[in-house]
Amino acid sequence: MKLSNLPKIVKKLREEKCLSQEKLARLADVSNNTIVNIEAGKQLNPTIETLMKIAKALDKNIDIFLK
After folding, report:
1. Is the pLDDT of residue 65 over 90?
2. Which of 12, 22, 30, 49 could form a disulfide with 34 if both were Cys (CB 3.0 to 4.6 A apart)?
3. Is pLDDT at 67 greater than 80 in this prediction?
4. 32-56 burial by CB neighbour count: b if 16+ within 10 A, else e?
């Protein structure tokens, strides 16, 4: 399943929490490149595990990415 809105959603939520890409990556325990690539639209099909980690780091439910 491709998540075409994922780049916009991740960036918007990250910025709302005043987090850098690097800080979000640390909080989510994923590589900085993962966050950069997701926000750049280069990685539109991350694993469920990665999405769960990012959602948790942003204090959101994974459902937020499925809109």
Report:
1. no
2. 30
3. no
4. eebbeebbeeebeebeeebbebbbe
